[in-house]
Amino acid sequence: MFPVRCFTCGAVIAHKWEEYKKLLSEGKSPREALDTLGIERYCCRRMFFTHKSVVEELARYRGVISFEEEGP
């Protein structure tokens, strides 16, 4: 899940995530993709460069770990 806003400046950036991934799949470098999207602030660029989706990783453990307290 990509953040809706940049953690540093608060700019709304989530709406550009899908287009960013599309540009990368077309062979553009991350720098070229962000330039194309108009992401200029280094704090916002960091959000794209460092994002790692962990949803798929966490979904593998669904049902394995129980958060319910066990009674005596």
Give me the secondary-structure topology.
Elements: H1 17-25, H2 30-37, H3 42-50, H4 55-59
Q: What is the N-to-C succession of helices and strands?
A: HHHH
Helix content: 40-55%
Largest sheet features: none
Terminus-to-terminus distance: 38 Å
Number of helical regions: 4
Number of strands: 0
Structural class: mainly alpha
State mean pLDDT (0 to 100 scale).
Answer: 86
Instruction: Write down the overall geometry.
Output: globular
**Content of β-strand:** under 5%
Residue ranges: pLDDT <50 for 5 or more in a row?
A: none
Rg (C-alpha, Å): 17 Å
Keywords:
72 residues; 4 helices; 0% strand; globular
Q: In words, what does this structure look like?
A:
The protein has 72 residues and is an all-alpha fold. Helix content is 43%, strand content 0%.
Brief summary:
The chain has helices at 17-25, 30-37, 42-50, 55-59. The protein has 72 residues and is mostly helical.
